[in-house]
Amino acid sequence: MKIRIRGNSIRYRLDKQDIAALEQTGKVEEETRIGAGALHFCIKAKDNPEAKIKLETQAVHLSLPLAQVQQWIQTEQVGIEQEIANPDGSILKIVVEKDFKCLTTRDEDDSQAFDNPLAAHNC
């Protein structure tokens, strides 16, 4: 799972292994060790009518509607976008996407990434 936070938005990019875990167990998790602690991220597919997110001391837990997750996994749909209202009236934008292989060479393992649909196009 790759996570990008910018302002009031969180973007998750899931590779094939992440999506398989989400489909089989109903959740996918990632943890980043920072010093003696860890920052934990979790996405769950739940039988909820809407997306919910919870911030804990060292964790962010996102739950998405099960039907929406199943449709995303089983189709060519690239991502799920949600907007969640915060108690202060601001909006948190959530994007969960399939992670595509990079079009340029990077020092990063993307062997579990999805084939990039733009790879077949010549510039």
3D structure, described in words:
The chain has a single domain, classed as Gyrase A, domain 2 (2-Layer Sandwich). By secondary structure, the protein is an alpha/beta fold. The chain has helices spanning 16-25, 66-74, and strands spanning 2-6, 9-14, 27-34, 37-46, 52-56, 59-65, 79-85, 91-98. The radius of gyration is 15 Å and the shape is globular.
How would you briefly describe this protein structure?
This protein is of the alpha/beta class and 123 residues long. The chain has a single domain (2-101), classed as Gyrase A, domain 2 (2-Layer Sandwich).
Distance between the termini: 29 Å
Strand content: over 45%
CATH architecture: 2-Layer Sandwich
Strand order across the largest sheet? 1-2-8-7
Q: Please identify the top-level CATH class.
A: Alpha Beta
- Secondary-structure element order, N to C: EEHEEEEHEE
Structural class of the helices, strands and pairings? Answer: alpha/beta
Number of DSSP strand runs: 8
Largest sheet, strands/sense/barrel: 4 strands, mixed
| Poorly predicted segments | none
Relative helix content: 10-25%
Q: Please compute the radius of gyration using only Cα atoms.
A: 15 Å
The coarse silhouette is: globular
Total of helices: 2
Question: What is the CATH topology classification name?
Answer: Gyrase A, domain 2
Task: Describe the protein's topology.
Blueprint: E1 2-6, E2 9-14, H1 16-25, E3 27-34, E4 37-46, E5 52-56, E6 59-65, H2 66-74, E7 79-85, E8 91-98
Parallel strand pairs: 2-8, 4-6
Antiparallel strand pairs: 1-2, 3-4, 5-6, 7-8
Defining key terms:
123 residues; alpha/beta; Gyrase A, domain 2; four-stranded mixed beta sheet; 8 strands; globular
